[in-house]
Amino acid sequence: MKDENILNNLSVSENLLLNDKRTITAWAFFDWANSAYALTITTAIFPAYFTAATLDEVNILGMHMKNTSLYAFAISAAYLILMVLSPWMSGIADYGGKRMTFMRFFTILGAISCIGLTFFEGMSSDLPATAAYNLQQVGIGTICFMLGTIGFAGGLVFYNSYLPLIASEDQYDRVSAKGFSYGYIGSVLLLVVNLVIIQKPEWFGLENSGSWVYRIAFLMVGIWWLGFAMIPFKRLPQDDDSKPKDNLMGKGFEELKKVWQVIKNEKNIKSFLGSFFFYSAGVQTVLFLAAIFAKTELGFETSSLILVILILQIVAIGGAHLFAKLSDLKGNKFSIITMLFIWIVVCIAASLVQESIQFYTVAAAVGLVMGGVQSMSRSTYSKLLPIGTKDTTSYFSFYDILEKLAIVSGTFIFGITDQLVGMRNSVLVLTVFFIVGIILMWNVKIRDTSIR
Question: pLDDT averaged over the chain?
Fold first, then answer.
């Protein structure tokens, strides 16, 4: 009875047409829009550009660290900020009906930050007043990157929370995979354009423009992100203005407390979220730092890295649907555990690679499970929510907070290990996260939502 009262208090009347193709397509276009940031900034171009544009050892407020460690710590700091802010923001979205407002806010923040990265020209050892110039440059690069990351990840919790509102349970896997597929396709299209500009700058009158051929990619991401986001902003259900507006911050925390009262008695949800935390620490750290690894350990040029990432993204499109199909046949848990075993093999292999062809093979394996594990995690969690849940944002806040905490933990441990004993050992340490994830996932029971 107590749980039912909690759920009733969380619920609102939402007149939404489930499984409407137009609405689902609009929802998927948000992935199309913001995945350009995930691919170009966090994966393909910016990581290599950051290491090339900064000195091998960076002095930040008297602290000396490797530039690769600084990059990892910047990710940790961005997600630590998000982890602190997310609970009350998502709670406010549920209680105050501001789901769309926060999606817009984070999108604008992220897009403008991408545009700001065009001013990150790089550090130098030859200029007068080098220390001041270098501090300014590393500040622009690091802060804009952190704000862009906050904008990207901050909007995802509100985007994810729309899934149970626009699709029935039996369609979660398919709709979730469609979102990821749109994200991969859209981001690959933009990355191909960026690759052409980098490889053939003379076609665009940029042959003598130095780093501008890379920085123009950051500008294009910001414009692409903001422009295509207008589709979901226009077509998705808008904010509920009838909800109370008083003391929203306090109410946001109250909403999370109510959700916790439900979650703490749900063994399956707790086991899944524990598993999700550990394997996300491994998955997200690999995705954030794979390009840094290839650039630093294997000497990949930026153009070569882009080709690797393109292969990875194309494979990921098929991977998302492959594991959705496997889930139909064998269940979500079997599908996720299979992918986690593959991730363990990936990390071990990556710590041993010496040749470029070996890295291409590992990258293809990453692509196979990258889209699948993210898509399947989101849809599996949706299936584990208590039946009848309407206000999903606070539930997805727990999911989102754990993912952010996982990223903070994974990237921080990676950065510390890199600073102390080198990057290859950092990659090897990540296998522990996947092993623990498998152990916890083993006890999860997922209800069958398929229609036979």
Answer: 82
